[in-house]
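Sequence in, structure out. Go.
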Amino acid sequence: MMPEKISLSVVIPVYNVENYLSKCLDSLLAAEGINDTEIILIDDGSTDNSGKVIEEYTLKHNNIRSFHTENSGAAAARNTGIRNAVGDYIFFCDSDDRVDSGLLGRIIRKTKTATCDMFMWDCELFYETKSILSRKDKSYFAHCGLERIEKEYSGKKIMENLVIRGKGVIASVCLGCYRRKFLLDNELFFEEGIIYEDELWVPRVLLSAKAVHYIPEKVYIYRVHDGSVTNPGADNRVKNIKVLMYVYPSLYNYYDKVLAGDPLKDAVEGNLTKRYLHMIYKYRFWKYGYGKDIDKQLLWRTSRKLRHKIMVLGLKLIAK
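Output:
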């Protein structure tokens, strides 16, 4: 039987992940206290056997609920989860990843008495195959710049420490759980119809949060594999570039509004420019006809380091 009061809801968008979904669910179900939570599976129009896996787990476990929708993307699926969850906190887990079951058990216990707007934790990278991807800096998904102790910050202070003392804001929705009332009161829904929706959502959440409880543990296990959104094949590059050309300018506009006159704005924009330049060069925007659309004056103005200025000068030569 489910308890009358549920402290945590786990929301999982599912799309064509029949090879991974069981591993994800098994890692969640092994956590102590998981029977006192709810797991919401949103089948986002899968065309493989993901629906059958969902049905099997739903029949076996009273704390698993499922929704079946037309394919609309992870953002829409997560919004469905926000609207239908009953837990005090929501943890968005991707269906091809896993959790550290023991550490998730600690999180479940903490959500029973917590009042903070969100919890935040770190991540371990799991490489599906040995490739150039396995050279990725393993500290990338650790919140560098924060003290390595369990501590509560304001969301703005988190952002300040990450961009000034660390390597920048980690735009991954999976590295925390969020008080549902906080999300609803601040209308923190995901923008639908795009990929990289985390990039827009995480800064809004941080700058809205008054209390963030940071736990310096690798609760989440992120699977790195070829063909994912962050490592797309050549066929998906144009789609990714088009979205990034929307996401990054939108963030500059957002910071102009919410950080106007704040000394933090320069550091945040400098970090954003660093990320934007990385993506421009990684995907070679100019090769796909987007060179002339890059606002090079904006990038020059917001660059805070010499190497970034040099990268912008390079764009003026090659991205025409």
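Check: The beta strands are 8-14, 38-44, 64-69, 89-92, 98-99, 118-127, 151-153, 176-179, 212-224. The chain is about 40% helix and 20% strand.
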